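Could you please consider the sequence and fold appended to this message?
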Amino acid sequence: MTTIKALYQRIIWAMAVEGLTIPTAAIKFYSHKEQIPEEVYYHHPSEITLTSCQAKKQASLGDAVLLTSENIGCVAAAITFGLVDMHRDKPLAGSRVYTDLMKNRSHNDDRFVPPSPEEFTNGTVYACASEKRYDFCLFGKDDSGRYRDAETARKAIADMIAIQPPTTKGVFFYSTDFDSMDLIPDVVVMTVRPVELTRIIQAYQYNTGKRVTASMGGLRVVNSDLIVRPYLTGEINISTYCLGARLIAQYEADKLGIGVPFKDFEIIAKGMEESATGFPFHLYPGT
């Protein structure tokens, strides 16, 4: 079996730029029917919650984390990953990173009730100003919300691909150096500059001739655009990082993401090596 670590190293070596690194995370889904290995479950933090954006960044930096319905910090990601039902009308228990931002900016902290998955699904959360749910605002009383009204929000949400009804027990994020287990990831997400994305697409096309079509939105980018869309469609997707990724996980201004099914990650590694002399990456400005 070719490991994620070996494939990543082949890609970097073939790009032939000294000191080059591309933050990369591997993601594996575990359904309710599967047993999560003990070594994977060890990376399930019990005292904190993490958004999918934070988990992906943490994995890219060399760590690993298992997200479940108990410790995922973003209700929207819990819906996307199939950890909770999108129409659940009760809030998720406990503190959650994303909804805690609402509480911290509310004038009624003691009475704050976090939004339920259903309130994300029906557009109330993202159209908080239009719906006059100022307790759901992230940026105070002048927050416009993410969409002008609930109808527009629902239209956008309908295109945010998700695993529904929920069938997922856990989502494991790990680094390319996590080689203590023979894990085959479902999806690989790379954080790239445009120049690096250029070369990755060239490597993919070298043996396939296939174009990559990007489907992107302004929200749920890491969990929906970059992980679940490639997972469910079997196709590569590219997207910019969203509000949560930029403000909560602090993704850099010059970076965007590419989500790759594992089968295509192998194709990219092979194409990167075989096309190295036809696409001299080290000569591209900015490398």
In short: The first strand starts at residue 24 and ends at 31. The two ends are 31 Å apart (CA to CA). The first helix runs from residue 4 to 15. Residues 87-158 form one domain.
